Each structure stands twice: as structure tokens, then as C-alpha cells.
Amino acid sequence: MRTPSISICAALIAAIGLMAGCQATATSDIYPDPIIVNHESINLAAIPTNWIDQAKATLHIAYGHTSHGSQITTGMTGLASWQGPYYAWNNGGVDGALDLRDFNGDFGHLGIADDLGDPNRTAWEQATRQFLDAHPEVNVIVWSWCSQVDGTEAQIQQYLDLMNGLEHDYRGVKFVYMTGHTDGSPPSGNVPARNQQIRDYCLANNKILYDFADIESYDPDADYYGDKLVNDACYYDSDGNSTRDRNWAVDWQNAHPGEWYNCASAHSQPLNANMKAYAAWHLWARLAGWNGR
Fold it and tell me: Quick one: CA dihedral 149, 155, 157, 162, positive or negative?
């Protein structure tokens, strides 16, 4: 016959196991639908100005990245120079600009993490918690990869689990997931597989995704290069001989003078950063409440 104490212990163990299982399983109760920002999100003119205004009035963003991730912010800086101060951003949202605290390395000046893989694959999560605890006004967190998305399935799952945990512990903050940059792999390669793992998770669990790789796999005319060994510099194999011999961004820039702007674009071409900036403003508007249509 089981004693009461043994029964109580068994019940407690079962309860703990249930709680652990809940923590390890992604849930979709944070957002009602996924928000996916990709190559279809680069039409700046399609974003209603009232939602850009709403983004500037309500969002307080912190962004952690290194060189590849800087394409977004250098593109945004170039856009403000090209189109005017309406698209300005700065730390604190001064003079009506978007409040975007940009950390190109050393997120939050905490000395903990630079991006999603530097110095390791978990430091960014510790830095995020420490930063949010000290800055409760921040309501959007964005992190990008350098090249570390080229990991194992388990390592990417760890990233997804850590993001999910942050969402549940900081309910008033929107956390933006991100794919890594293209690396010249064929569609069957590891980086495309790991990026697809992130996409699938975000779609299945109603997450917010900025699809960095997808944006640089298409030109502005929606011609696709992801099956042509495209890399982060926009070079691709045009004739199927397994050698990258053309650059879609340079070709498009040459064919469309006046339709793009020059700006810094780490490891890449200005057009890539242009598109990343357009998509970023699409993201900010969506986070402010725009339905994307």
C-alpha cells in the first residue's frame, strides 16, 4: 500500500514534469497571427503614412547586430538622406524620429553579447533580459545573425526556445525573429535548411519574422536567385555551371538609375540595404498595428 507521502511526492514530480514540458513547447498565444516580413514587403509607398506616424509615436526599439545586420540601419540612414527626415531614426526618437537604439556590437553597452552567435549562442538572451529590466520603456527587441545560422538543427531550436521564453516573460515586448544571410549554398545546403527551420517555426507559432535571407534572394522585380548559389554580396550563378558570375544587385542598379540610393551595405551592394530598409519600415508599421494590406 502506497503511503500518503509517496503519493504526494509522485504528484509533485508529475506537476513539475508538466510545467517543464509547457516551458519547452512553443505556444501561439502571444500574437493571433504571424507577421512575416520578406521580399514581398519592400514597397515603401504601400505603407500608409498614418502607420509610419504610429510607429514613430509608439515603438521603442532595441537592435543588436554586427556587420551583416548593419545593412538594415545603414539602409535606413540612407533612406532618410534620400527621401527626407520623415524616415529619420535615432536613439531616443528625438525630433519626431523613430526611436531605434542601435547596437552594432556590445548590445546595450553591457559587455555581454554582440549578435545571436557572438560570443556564443546564449549570451544574447542574458543581455536582452538585463537590458529590458533596466529599460522598461523598450517594447521591441530585434537581434540578427552574422554567419552563425550555419549551425545544427538543435542549435537553431535552442535559439527559437530562448526567444519563446523571452516572449512569455516580457509580455509587453514584441520580439522579432530573423533568418541569417545567404551564403552561396544550394537549396539543399545547411544554411537554407536552418533558415527554413526558422520560417516554419514562426509560421506555425504566430511569431514575428524579419526574413533577412528571403529579402536578398530576390531583386526588386521579384526575380528569384535563391536556387542559383546566391550569396550575401548578391553574386549568383547565372548559367548553371556552379560558378557565380553575375551580381543581381549591380545589374539592377545599372538598369534602374535614379530608382535606388547609394548607402553603406556591409559585405553587399547598396540595393540590398535599400530593400532591407524598406522592409524594416514595413516591419515597424506592422508592429504599430498596420494589417499589411
Answer: negative
> Domain limits at 80?
34-288
Q: How far, in Å, CA of 153 to CA of 151, rounded? A: 7
Which amino acid, 19? M
Q: pTM of the entire structure?
A: 0.90
Q: Which CATH number does the domain housing residue 228 bear?
A: 3.40.50
Residue 49 maps to a domain: yes
User: For residue 144, what pLDDT is reported?
Assistant: 99
User: Which set of grid coordinates corresponds to residue 80?
Assistant: 532618410
Count of CA atoms in the C-beta half-sphere (13 A) of 51: 18
The Cα 56–Cα 66 span in angstroms is 24
**Number of domains present in the structure of the chain:** 1
What value does the mean pLDDT take over residues 57-67? Answer: 99
